[in-house]
Amino acid sequence: MNLFLSEIKHVMNPNIEVLGVSGWENSDLYTIVKDKSPTKIFLKNNEEIQLAQILNESNEIVLIPCKEISSNISIEKLMNAIETHDHVVIHESEKYTGYVDAVAFSKQLINAYKKMEAYFQTVLQTIDSSCTVIDSNENVLIWTEGAERIFSVKQEEIIGSKITDFFHPERLELLKTVEDGTSVTNSQHHAREDLVVMINSNPVYLDEEIIGAVVSETNITSQVRLHNELSNTTEKLFNLEKEVNKLIPSEDPFIAIKGNSSTLKKTISMAKKAATTNTNILIYGESGVGKELFAKGVHSIREGEDAPFIPINCGAIPSALFESEIFGYEKGAFSGADQKGKKGKVELAKDGTLFLDEIGEMPLDMQVKLLRLLQEKKFYSVGGTKEKEVDFRVVAATNKDLRELVEEGKFREDLYYRLNVVSLEIPPLRSRPADIIELTHYFLYEVSIKYNRPIHGISQLMMQALLQHHWPGNIRELKNAIERLVVFAEDGEIKLEHLPFKVDGVNPSPSKQLPYFAENDNRALSERLEEVEKEIILQQLEQENGNKLACAKKLQITRATLYNRINKLGLNV
After folding, report:
1. What separation in angstroms does the CA of 477 have from each of 172, 318, 401?
2. Which long-range contacts link 560-567 to residues 24+ away (Cβ below 8 Å)?
3. Distance CA 442, CA 197 (A)
4. CA–CA separation, 470 and 482 (whole Å)
5. What is the mean pLDDT of the chain?
6. How far from 229 is each of 337, 348, 467, CA to CA, in Å?
7. I need a labelling partner for 92 at 20 to 30 A (CA). Which of 109, 236, 341, 429 fits?
């Protein structure tokens, strides 16, 4: 039987036989009814249909008038029919398919109610979050254990009482839901002065009339406080960084980006050209390629010395805190908020750069508000009534294909075109083998100084392993790998076994140490790198038996590039 008895077939008894009225003697009917039991016998005469039933006391046959209805009517209409007739006969087209007995139907309704109640109570006992249900008179009908934990109010104290006896009406989103049918999804709300919750609420309708409301709450007070502390720390760090930068002589803003490959240089050149304008810039690149370094480089070129650079990671902020994080909030905007209010990232970026990292992760509802901000440079703080105006430049970054997200309906097309005025694509590390060599030496030097562990050099075998790795985490992964090698180094020697990835296809030729930073070696880094590059090309050519095309493919460069490097390095091959 269906739990909710939604159709007549769920309550109908199919054991039925309908006979014509004429020609039957009581004795014959008695025999038929008795022999056919438990099948019910009904007699049909024109528009009238009757149940033939034996009286237990006298064994006489009595004919009880019944109601005849179609099988496609609703349960509600069936209940109306049972109000006037104890038995209702069901027909479908020209065929009688069953009957409904009022007593049996009542038992089925009671059993269905018990089942629903059992499931309902189990659900309430199972869910961990807070769930509250009130009726249209604001009386509490349901108060789960989750609600007890969050609000410190026991079930026996609040169930049956008005919810306004325990909470101020102005802090009850549930009352608005009962009054006007407003639904709320993933909304930050303050139920008490010291409590911030994430709520979802919906009205309960019965016959198009609101009879109550349901709300679920998740306590996010600690998240809000932690996020506020993190924001304050970030702001202090920015101010400290600004003071430190004043003491450092100005230099190439892209100098922090290490690498000399042609693809990287081309990307830097494009970034510098774009930085001479105030246009929006969208940076594409896999995780770990240094998108924020490019954004800071653009900022340094086109903004003043004291202009703020405000980064915000769109993938790291809970959706409920997004609006207050970007636009800030006024004093008393919600419980748990800073009593003085708080400036949002947009306001902090005034006359500077707002860096929107992982823009593809921004919730769709916030994309609408961001689009308006970019178009009008005006916004409202959370809880504010006064429109604020702010001027800033935008640099966005993503590791996703925004065009694909637009087609999937996960990113607004109008916002995409607003951001994608100038796009830069940072090449992944695996497509820049020359940069792998330079970055490896740079990180070895940096990390060895950090941990005071001098490294004597790096073997050809080790460099070959690093060059053949795919580097899905790009520069960040390379730096972590080098740091791991230095940490586990013994007597200044780094070993293949300490690499954090499996090494396949590396030629186990005798290990030869390449110069890294030896005593009395005063050569420039470029000269040392050339020596390393010579060794790599020679070893690779030897492995490929002098086949330059195969060598170029292994090094992931073109054959023309290989010939150029051989000539420039003066190799006799």
Report:
1. 49, 26, 22
2. 562/537, 565/533, 565/537, 566/537
3. 48
4. 15
5. 83
6. 11, 16, 42
7. 109
Task: Please state, for a pLDDT cut of 90, what percent of the chain lies above it.
Answer: 27
Cβ contacts of residue 117 below 8 Å, gap of 6+?
none
CA distances from 417 to 362, 381, 454 (A): 16, 26, 51
What three-state secondary structure class fits 148? helix
- Residue 410 is classified by DSSP as S
Please name the residues in contact with 356: beta carbons below 8 A apart, sequence gap of 6 or more: 312, 314, 362, 370, 394, 395, 396, 397
pTM above 0.90, yes or no: no
Could you tell me the two tokens for 31? Answer: 């025999």
User: Within 13 Å of residue 470, how many CA atoms lie on the same side as its CB?
Assistant: 5
Q: What is the dihedral of CA 3, 5, 11, 12, to 10 degrees?
A: -120
500 SS3 class = coil
Tens of pLDDT, residues 221-272: 777 677 567 656 755 665 676 577 566 655 688 888 888 888 999 999 999 9
Kindly report the number of other CB atoms within 10 A of residue 516's CB atom: 20
Give the model's pLDDT for residue 328. 86
Q: Are strands 393-398 and 281-284 parallel, antiparallel or unpaired?
A: parallel
